[in-house]
Fold this protein.
Amino acid sequence: MRGTRLELRSESLRINARRARALSAGAELFAMVKADGYGHGLRFAAQSLRDDVDGFGVAMLDEALQLRSDGVDAPLLLLEGVFDAAELVEAAGAGCELIVHSEWQVELLEKTSLPAPVRVWLKLDTGMHRLGVPLTAVDALAVRLRACGQVSLVGMVSHFACADMLQDALSMLQLQRVRDAAARHGVPFSAANSAAIFRYPESAGSRVRPGIMLYGSSPFPDRTAAELGLAVTHRLSAPIIAINEVPAGDSVGYGSSWQAVRDSRIAVVAIGYGDGYPRHAPSATPVSVMNADNSWRRAALAGRVSMDMITIDVTDLPLTRIGDRVELWGDQVSVDEVAQHCGTISYELFCRMTARPERITS
Ligand SMILES: Cc1ncc(COP(=O)(O)O)c(C=O)c1O
C-alpha cells in the first residue's frame, strides 16, 4: 500500500458551518459545494453539512442532480443558472433555484413551459463585470421575470470581486447597488461569500454563500484560518520511501533545479502532481515530517515535483527514517501557506486533487 492519504473531516466542516452561521445574523446559509465540494467530494461535503446549512450552491445542473440522486432534498441553487432549455425543464423538475444572469436566460424562461414552479434570483453586475445583468437593465428584466408563468423572482444576487483583498475599494459600492435594486423591487438580496461574512456583516442580506471558509481555509492573505477560528477539513500526507545522501554541489530531481550547498539528506516522499500536489510548488515550499520521537518537524521541498514523488531536504532532521509520514498540508502546514508558496490559492489546490490518494473520511 503506497500510503498517500487525503483525510477529510466532516466534523470540521460542521464546525466551520456553525462559525459562518454565527457571523451571519440570521441569514440563510447556503454552502457552496460546487467543483466536487471544493475537491472534498460532493457527496461527502453535502452529507457532512446537511444538518447545519439551509441549502447548497452548485455551478451546474449535473452537480445538483448528483446531490438529488444522493438523496439530498435540501434547496439547491444553480449559481450560473441553466445553459439551455432542456436543462431548464430538468432543473425545474428537480426543484432547483436558478440564478438568472443574462437576458438570454430571461428569454428562455419566457418561452419554455416548465413542469413545476421555479424560484429565480436575478444576478446583477455590480462592478465585477463577470456574470450579471447591467444595472441599467435590472428593472426591465425584473418586470419580465415577474410576468413569466411558473417563475417567482425571489431576490437579487451579486458577487464581490475584492472582499478578500487588503485594499478593497469596491465591495461597499457593490453592496449598495445590489441592496438598492432589491429594495426597489421589494425582494431580499444575497451577496456574501466567505470573505464578506467575516469582514462585512452588513452584507449578509437574506442569504450568505460561504465556500472556502467551510473548507477550513482563510479567504484573506493576512489572516490564518486558525486565527479566524476555522477547523482543518483537508489533510494531505504521504510516507517517505527513500533517503539519499547528496554531497555538496550535486543536484536533485528533474532539471537539476535544486543544488546542495552542503552535504545533504534528501528524502523521497510518495506523492506528486499525479496525486494533485502542485507541480509548480517551488523548492522551499514547507512540509512537516513526523519523526520517530512522535514530533512534527518542518522541512522543505528540494527540487522539482515529479508525477509520483517529491524530494524534501531533511538534513536538519537527523531522526528522519524511511516510512515516516510527511504532511503536505493540514494541521502542521496550512494549505494557505502552501498555496502562497505556489502563487495560487487553496481553492485551486483543493480542486486539483486527483482520485489517486486514498480518501480517509471521518
Ligand atoms: C456566486 C458565488 N457565491 C459564493 C461563492 C463562495 O465564495 P468563497 O469560496 O470565496 O466563499 C462563490 C465562489 O466562487 C461564487 O461563485
In short: The domain at 234-361 is CATH 2.40.37.10 (Lyase, Ornithine Decarboxylase; Chain A, domain 1).
